[in-house]
Amino acid sequence: MSIIHSLLTATNFRNPFLRNLIPSIGLAFGIQAAVAVPSILGQTERFYDLSGSLTYLSCTALSLYLPVLRARSAAALVDAPKPGWPSLASALNGTAGPYGFNWRQVFLSAAVSLWAARLGSYLFMRILGDGKDSRFEEIRKSPPKFAVAFFAQAVWVSLCLLPVLSINSLPPATFAALGGFVSITDLLGVLLYVGGLGFEITADRQKSKWSQEKKEKKHDEDFLTRGLWSKSRHPNYFGESTLWTGIATVAAGVLASNAGVAGMGLAGGLAGKGLALLSAGISPAFVTFLLFKVSGIPLSEKKYDKKYGDRKDYQKWKKETPISIITSILDIKYQLPIRPTPHLWPYLQLSRILTFQLAYTSSTDLFFSTALLYQFRVLERLWGSRKYASFVAVIFAVNVLLLPFLTVFLKGLTFGLWNYLPAGLTAIVFAALSIWSDEVPRLYRYKILTGKIPLATATEQNDSTTAGGGGGGGNTRTAAQQQSQTDLPGITLSDKSTTYLLATQLALCQFPYQLIPALVGWALGSAWIGELLPGGLSRWRVPAWVVGESPKSKERGQYEGLRRRLEEEGSSADGMRNVSDRVAERQDTARRGFGRQIASYFTGS
């Protein structure tokens, strides 16, 4: 019996995930131990990074081909025909067979291999040129510390590869149960990987070019401040963290499914899904922690602080350049508000017209708008997701041109005093508020008394209570008694008053500039529900697939037609009020002045 067969037999666990995981991790520690011994004896770190890349490549290949390797080994013991080695192309043409690959297995394995080969060759060529690595200056001469470094690298490889090892442990039946479609997690993961890898490659090339130019005396700069390095002090680390997030995203989409949980040999339910997601998510979390808190940024920052910490130009660069590209991206909040001068002219930053509604720049605005949108969730229940999404899309699109135009107009009208349009979705919030105030009826009203109750009224209430408890006369209140309670001094409110108060506070934030989006949003909401917008925008609907709806069946089409007819007749979507109630309310509103109409929203009258 060969050594390989003995190892395969010893690691032939019942759980398919462990059958793949244990041998791969064992190989990682074995390679690191084999490279650590001569490196420690020779006190050289020249092959440290290269051995890490070799470990990634070896463990990935082993996890991919381990199932067929076990099958061939078992067939050799009984002199049975050995199964052939599956080709990587079989994952694309659908001829995978019992030991074949799914395209996700091939992609993730190739993604890791490409990253490892590129990074390993880059770091190996760099150390050949520099002759040493500054990270090992203090541990190179200490065998225990140097051994720990190789041990840590084996742990690094094992944890980073965990999503790939997990998905490579799944049998072909798991992927067959998922179907052949490409999911959202697949697309998102691929995009994150490609973007992260491109970011890391670009940052490394910019640094290599800068170092080469410095050796050639083309500049005398001591630290890199060009390209991506002007946006972040460590853009390469951001790229690496992003690409591992992409790999984990593709793996999580499969592992968290019911078929994936079963394929890993885990128990069903939340516990199984949680373990499956943990096996995918631990990789980017560990990489990010390692780079930002342990060996990446801390060591680099410590070295540069010690070398240039007393220089003012270094202090200025460190203060103005964020440590991570994430911090630089978060600075986008300064790119959202619009000042006609100078943003629109003379800088021509027209992109602000498309982005100013995407996010708030004030936590106060964010708090009030979030509370209001939570109240308006009832609109989606009344209308359905498709109509609600259409409403938001239309209001957003109209505001792209309308609000900047009004801001420019007011700037001219006020001779340059009104020169600011706050960022945020205030207009959309108030558009929803105008519809919510009309579509959702109040449930109750109450009064907060501001004075003492007259003695006569209190006596009447006691008499009414006594009469009601004596002989079942609970409804014996006279009209005069009810009128006397209505005339009590106080403030009448309703269950909707709190919502209107939150909206008022939102409109008064960043006073007076927030008033324009609020008023415009209210007007647009009223125009949308009244079908007064041009071009039939009120009847336009987003495609059904946008909100995850399947194509309408015949029955659903009939239901939608009935609901549209009800809406045309003046009924609310939930049927809670009839046509006569609405007409009477609108006639009563028309008789009141504008001030009384606004006050009525708060008082509930």
From TrEMBL:
Basic and acidic residues composition-biased segments: 557-568, 579-591
The keyword Nucleotide-binding is assigned to this record: no
Keywords from the named record: Membrane, Transmembrane, Transmembrane helix
Name of the molecule in the record: Uncharacterized protein
Region (Disordered): 460-485, 557-591
SUPFAM superfamilies: Rhomboid-like
Subcellular location(s) per record: Membrane
Composition-biased stretches (Polar residues): 476-485
UniProt xrefs under Pfam families: DUF1295
Gene3D superfamilies xrefs: 1.20.120.1630
Species for this entry: Exophiala mesophila (Black yeast-like fungus)
